[in-house]
Amino acid sequence: MQTDLRGRDLIGDLDFSKEEVQTVLEVAYDLKRKRALGEPHPYLRDKTLAMLFFFSSTRTRGSFESGMAQLGGHAAFIESKTTQIAHGDTEREIGDIFGRYFDGIAIRHVDWGVGNQYLNLVAEAARVPVLNMQCEIYHPFQILADLMTIQEKVGPNLRGVKMVVSWAYAASYLKPVSVPQSLILQLPRFGLDLTLAHPPEFKLRPDVMEQAQAEAKKYGTKFEVVDDMEAGFEGADVVYAKSWGPLLTTQDPDEGKKFQDQYKSWITDEAKMAVAGKDAIYMHPLPADRNVEVTDAVIDGPQSVVFDEAENRLHVQKAVMALTMK
Ligand code: CP
Questions:
Q1: pLDDT(220) > 90
Q2: Which residue minimizes the CA distance to atom 4 of ligand 1?
Q3: 3-state class of 260 per DSSP?
């Protein structure tokens, strides 16, 4: 167990070592148990977290805000449009000034080519931890919750467990690539064999792919890429199928939609789930485009773990806040 995470940022998935992630999970399980038993756990009494949002959220906002209250502190919801950022507040000013008011700064900024740099510039200027509530490259807290959920559902030893991370069709908007990228970065360390399935226009960042392949090699796990959803589902123990935009191909929403609309058959339905292992679990970070990305029968069916997955956001985030903001 790694006991000194105080003051640390969590921006990219590999910012914490495997042992440090294991520590986060141990603390998360303890906090989950304490909440279930109604045991108070005010590890962050009188501490405050700034939650700066440049993009909408349901789960991330709710779980960070509630989590801070459960730890005895307070989270301030700050919508960027309500600040003076558009009138000139720089990243350095936000980092330095909020670092004097708050004990942690959490940021969601998913704008292409902007968000991750914004978080890093704030972190350089801040005297307190900066936590990534999702940028255009990474969504580390989602993947910590996913890992906790897979351990709970499949078992603590994940070596040899087959997981498919698949693209799925969506009509709503070009969703960020941060979830699939964070999945392929974090999960090889924990022994999962990964298959990444996507149509040719929906590639992930080359640097992230290289890092993921290096992680898989380091930990002796399999990592393959296919361009067929059903082939990816074949024999999978964990099915994680969600949409992302063809953002490495184009950032133009109209052009991107034309690429997306070629692949309407990439929906998770009961027929595709039947190709996966018979005890396979279905995961999705939400929000999902129902009956476009995934059928109601699957997302509301017995193999779906999406609500437990969403709940675990609360527990892993409380663990990271308690360990870093103490
Ligand atoms: N999964 C997730 O991050 O949900 P929100 O976008 O609602 O925060």
A1: yes
A2: 59
A3: helix
